[in-house]
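INFO batch 0412 | record 1 of 1 | parsing
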Amino acid sequence: MLSLSGGGFRGLYTAQVLADLEAELGEPIARHFDLVAGTSVGGILALAVAMEIPAKKIVELFVEHGEDIFKKRLSLLGILRSSYSSGPLAKLLEAEDLFGERLLGECLHPVVVPSINYSTGKPVLFKTPHHENFKRDHTYRLVDVALATSAAPAYFPRHTFNNNQYVDGGLFANAPGILANHEALTFFGRAQEDVWMLSVGTMSALFTVDPRGNREGGTLDWGGWSPAETPKRLFGLAISVQESLTDFILKHCLQGRYQHLDDDLTERRANAVALDKANAAAREVLQGTAAERSKFAIGDPVIRNFFNHRPQAARFHYGPRAAKE
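INFO prediction complete | emitting tokens
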């Protein structure tokens, strides 16, 4: 299993690691995994991986258009609307050489992408039809699934399709490895000892408190003088804690069969990197660190063992790739 975390523009780190691994393998990385799971920007990457779109293309998208995606718009300090529009990202993803108008059911490999259905207040997992019970999601556009999983509160507006409003899956599953493990046990019928997982993070910074600051729990405490910063900081804290918790749990569940590729941000580098920083300094930190991490991964025999795996051809029950009886 391949698990890809969320983290906004920090997903450039994830994309660069995947691109480097694909360059070493000489083929799409999905051909070595039975399932790909991804949340938020990791969900966008997971969909691309499942479609065998080269990770290098996603790297190029972030490098060339990151500042367009995260271009501030008039929002009256986040009171009227989110800081960024989802329009530029949607337009990029709708390009014919990316997702275009293709559907989830056209994926070549099984994939799971979490979001939250804000209309019902419940979590939702968008899935390819790799189980006979998964009858509906394959009819959804890849672009809609991508925008639904990455609609980070206060950063982007909610994404509406199919008469429902969706927000970022990172609120409950920013690191989707636990969901992938459940999928393996429940819907693929695997025993726990047969599950192997490679997880790739996004250099998620740990959100901690300044002991010198206000600790009264109000807007000034959480967000300073800008109301928009309060939900952003709470969202950042939520995804940071989830990353740590998921890593801890999966190390127990999978033991030596779980490998996590990620890097901690030093104090100075943390100032250059954020969910919505897409400038040259952020790109340098993310791509440079990813290059070092992928070099380590390529030389690690434990991680190389993942790439010796060749899964059986995926069996889809519905849609254009449904198995012929």
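INFO post-check: The radius of gyration is 19 Å.
INFO record closed
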